[in-house]
Design brief:
18 helices; 7-stranded mixed β-sheet; Nucleotidyltransferase, domain 5; alpha+beta
């Protein structure tokens, strides 16, 4: 491969995530030649706060770029382009001298809940949603910016720029805070139809548009690796850098969910289901039960993210799973492998045990921060294995709920590409196929967002003509799961019960 380096260049995909920064060297077949990870510290000065140090993000970016190149053992000149994926919804204040005035307030930060409610009353929650694709949720920057203005007025006066993680990295790298429209569309400040900053919302918030980053197209070369970064990372000076897109959009692309009828499901601590669309899709129901962001290449990204996915299984492990953790240690395997093995012996539907897994409240398709978990149908015949399977099924029921809502709006979904840590479980993949009633495809490269970034670079260099061709060449299938018709019928019955349980009990959650 490397003997044909002019014909087959390499790409560096950098994913600036919420919990870590990851860099990968990919070839044009989508194979990983080198990789590096750095964890990020989430600071919690108060329980409702979740902040990150933008300087730590910057250092982690440089370190992983350097170490992934070292691990690959390829000549620096073989890396033809660098492309970025990044987290969404964060915001920080940067002074005129380029130094941070605050940490980055991440999407996990709850401090601006009151400002979010007030903003909805001021502008109208559905009006904001219909313009930006962002439902009335605390995760978005407008409420956090209001919090800055009200709680940190002196710092806000000194604020030169309001930046998220990616645009801060661009600012440090090139001296200009470039941001792609994909990440920007997750700010609730970008008009999702016109793909520019929404003047009505900015005026209502009293935000000077000059404080916002400079918008660029996802395929645009925003600069070249400068000499000082070349010396630190080992990359060739002058290597072009494209801005890339959001981690959400690039996860779909890196999983190969780029054609009509293919959705992507992520099973991490939280979860998501998203599908690329050739138009912005807004929920006709005023409850705004799914989001819609811009993705890339003239595609939009309707979908829904859920609070309760792998985090619920982790809670089970921590509270009830000590025997399984000990067994895993003896066998030298992951504790989740032992835990899910137990559930494999239970029939679909968990023999009448139903889990509504809202342990951390929920945001899609319902916005209910006070929602609680529910285990229904428990009998003396049920054991730990039933509990585990009911959790796994309950998570997929929530994703099915979102999927059905999007299908009602005219989207066609025939196949699911699945990723995230939870997708390592063959059982969970089969449960997803059976509950959703769709073919589920698991791909070989787990770090889909970084691969998606590399795919954009390959298209930019003309190696592939579009997302479809890049997907066919760079995304490799690891396993395929077809839905079992009998299991799907059973799950449809239980899914309707699951929804009914939530609706019947939602009025009681505030009593707890």
């Amino acid at each position: 491969m490397l003997e044909k380096r002019d014909e087959y260049p390499l790409f560096l995909g950098v994913d600036v995530g919420t919990t870590n920064v990851r860099s990968f060297i990919f070839n044009s077949s989508g194979e990983v030649l080198g990789q590096s990870f750095r964890g990020l510290t989430i600071h919690r000065p108060k329980p409702e706060m979740a902040e990150e140090d933008v300087e730590e993000i910057w250092r982690a970016t440089l370190e992983t770029m350097r170490d992934s190149l070292k691990m690959s053992k390829v000549p620096a000149g073989d890396v033809a382009m660098v492309s970025f994926s990044a987290q969404m919804h964060g915001v920080s204040m940067i002074g005129r001298d380029g130094k941070p005035l605050t940490r980055l307030l991440t999407w996990l930060d709850l401090r601006a809940t009151e400002q979010c409610e007030r903003l909805g009353r001021l502008l109208g929650s559905y009006e904001i949603y219909s313009r930006t694709g962002g439902p009335p949720l605390f995760i978005y920057p407008p409420a956090k910016i209001l919090w800055f203005k009200e709680k940190m007025p002196e710092k806000f006066k000194k604020c030169h720029k309001l930046l998220s993680a990616k645009d801060y990295v661009m600012y440090r790298m090139f001296g200009e805070p470039y941001l792609d429209r994909s990440v920007a569309s997750g700010s609730q400040l970008l008009n999702i139809h016109e793909l520019r900053w929404d003047e009505t919302i900015l005026e209502s918030l009293g935000i000077d548009p000059d404080k916002l980053p400079t918008l660029r197209d996802e395929m645009e070369v925003v600069g070249e690796i400068p000499s000082e970064i070349s010396k630190y990372t080992g990359l060739r000076r002058g290597t072009p850098v494209i801005i890339g897109a959001s981690d959400a959009a690039l996860s779909n692309i890196g999983l190969g969910a780029v054609e009509e009828g293919i959705a992507a499901v992520n099973l991490g601590s939280s979860g998501a289901i998203r599908v690329l669309s050739d138009r912005p899709l807004i929920d006709k129901d005023r409850r705004a039960r799914f989001f819609c962001y811009y993705a890339a290449q003239g595609r939009w990204l309707p979908g829904g993210a859920i609070n309760n996915a792998g985090i619920v299984l982790r809670w089970f492990r921590d509270v009830f799973g000590e025997p399984e953790v000990m067994e895993a240690s003896k066998r030298g395997v992951d504790p989740y492998e032992v835990i899910t093995e137990k559930a494999a012996g239970v029939k679909p539907g968990s023999e009448g045990l139903v889990m509504v897994p809202f342990l951390a409240g929920e945001r899609f398709p319902v916005r209910d921060p006070k929602a609680k978990g529910l285990l229904f149908g428990l009998t003396l015949a049920h054991g730990k294995a039933h509990f585990i399977r009911a959790i796994m099924e309950g998570v997929i029921y929530t994703l099915r709920w979102i999927m059905k809502i999007m299908e009602e709006q005219g989207l066609t979904i025939e196949e699911i590409r699945i990723g995230g840590g939870g997708a390592r479980s063959s059982l969970w993949r089969q449960i997803a196929a059976d509950v959703l009633g769709k073919t589920v495809v698991h791909t070989k490269v787990e770090e889909a967002s970084a691969l998606g970034a590399a795919m954009l670079a390959a298209i930019r260099l003309g190696i592939y003509k579009d997302l479809g061709e890049a997907s066919r060449e760079m995304v490799k299938t690891a396993s395929l799961h077809e839905p079992d018709p009998e299991a799907h019928r059973r799950y449809t019955t239980v899914f309707n019960l699951y929804k009914g349980l939530y609706e019947a009990l939602r009025g009681f959650y505030e009593e707890l």
